Amino acid sequence: TYDVCLKLTKEALTIQKPDVVCTSGTDSQVNHRTVVLRRQATGSLGLSIKALGGAEHNVPVVISKIFKDQVADQTGKLFVGDAVLQVGAVHLLRTAGDEVTITVRYLREVPSFLKLPLGSPGPDHSRVSSPLFDSGLHLNGNGNGSSAPSPPSPSANEPKYEKRWLDAVCLPLLMARVSRYKAGTDKLRSNCFEVVALDGASTNILQFCTAAESTDWLQAISANINDLTQENIKMVNKFCSSDDQIVYMGWACESREGSAAGRTSVFKFLALRGPYFSIYRSPPVIADWGQAETTYNLYEVLFKVHKLWMAEDCWLQARLYLGLEHSPEQQDNESLYFSILVGHGQSHTFRVELATDLAIWEKSFQRAVFLEVQRIRSKSYMCSSQGNVLSFTVDFASGFTCSEATAKTVLWRYKFSQLKGSSDDGKTRVKLLFQNAESKQIEMKELEFANLTAVLHCIHSFIAAKVASMDPLFMCGQSFSGSYMNS
Questions:
Q1: CATH label of the domain that carries residue 342
Q2: Which of 207, 214, 215, 245 is 20 to 30 A from 196 via CA?
Q3: What's the CA gap between 195 and 179, in Å, rounded?
Q4: Where are the beta strands (DSSP E) in 94-176?
Q5: C-beta separation of 449 from 430 below 8 A
Q6: Backbone angles phi, psi at 72, to 5 degrees
Q7: pLDDT range class, residue 112, cuts 50, 70, 90
Q8: Residue 430: beta bridge partners?
Q9: Is residue 3 part of a domain?
């Protein structure tokens, strides 16, 4: 691991790494610096070095500490994190005479054990490392406190150097995704997460000192990704028909039952667009909306949030809805999942990173289903009862109607409010219990469907849309076109 600096803007996350740059004068070598060290009378050079990896040969020798006001510091050309490029550097620095010439190159991804400071990049701060980790070879003389001679005045053309944070990786946040989990698993990382751009370029892993700091960055990056997604949705919808408007789209991690190793997970891009809920391997461009792995009719699926156990600690629930991260011991109870239940008892289970993501998906599904029910107004299914082929219709305005399939004769009709209960065998048969408007008696209607689950989900969607249409708060929060309002 090594230290980086993060810079977050609306459109991108930039990862900066420390580097040494020439600030004035002429520098003939772009990446290398050649420095002449002249020993003081005490024989000191004023620096400490470490051999990375611990081997005697073919490993970088890195400056791990520079002592203030001694020879190495006075040159202004050496920095903690500089790798000495000469072969046999340790022997060279130990045995050289009064003058030693070394060539160095700054390691941008310097190991964290050197403890480079993350503060001001000025020359006084940038060449000092933590005294807790300077166990390498010290070349700072006898430490008798004798004053160091004044350094020679540099010439006008002599290059001057500073350590600065420089942009190393820029990750566009449009359609990017974040993950706190170890790749392909449902196991949380500790105080860290990954950011992956649309093109698949990854930051590797960003690790933070505390869980709070990690959560702050995760929330900030996720908020920017969501804002860009909303802007992109508005732009795409300008070129789509009223029947193909995108309600919401974004990444979620599909969790699957694996082998003996347990659950596996893979990121999928989900879209609520027009009549459909679609699952993609990657975000589609406008011309590729038809390239989904799987597509379902919105009114025939059911959205279900996996509720958490909140038996003792109410603060757990409060922190969850704020999107805060918790200890690894709590992760099994706090993972944020939702399922899409489809026909024949099948389902897809997805995981999101923050409670705010879960809330967005839940509200988006409610809105998408409502708009689709408003658009189609009614849906009919073929069914049978006592050997007769029938047509069962769910209508937003009139409720439930059952007719003969051929003659179209209406056998019975009930309003949504008259449905008092139902039961099914989990396969094909369902019993619907209606209250007679006049006699107030319960009347049972038994029907058999080829895809019972789809019919039950459709009934649920229409009833939910009917209830929502009577809720002023829900209606005020919707954006409808004239065709929806007048249909």
A1: 2.30.29.30
A2: 245
A3: 7
A4: 99-106, 137-139, 160-172
A5: yes
A6: -60, -40
A7: low
A8: 424, 447
A9: no
Same domain, 139 and 212: no
Distance of CA 210 to the CA centre of its chain: 18
Q: Cα separation of 115 and 125, whole Å? A: 12
- Using DSSP's 3-state secondary structure scheme, residue 383 falls into strand
**At which residue do the structure tokens 């919707």 appear?**
478
**182 vs 36: CA distance, rounded Å:** 48
**pTM reported for the whole predicted model:** 0.78
Give the amino acid at 133.
F
What domain count does the chain have? Answer: 3
Q: Could you report the per-residue pLDDT of 290-311, keeping only the tens digit for each?
A: 899 999 999 999 999 986 544 4
Sequence-ordered list of residues with C-beta below 8 angstroms from that of 352, at least 6 positions apart, any chain: 252, 253, 336, 337, 338, 358, 361
CB 391 within 8 A of CB 383: yes
Which residues fall within 8 angstroms of residue 462, CB to CB, at 6 or more apart?
A: 299, 373, 379, 394, 395, 396, 416
Residue 462 phi, psi (nearest 5): -70, -40
In angstroms, the Cα distances linking 397 to 22, 329, 374, 466 are 75, 50, 10, 9
d(CA 399, CA 418): 9
**Rounded to whole angstroms, what are the CA distances from 268 to 60, 271, 283, 325, 352?**
42, 10, 9, 23, 11
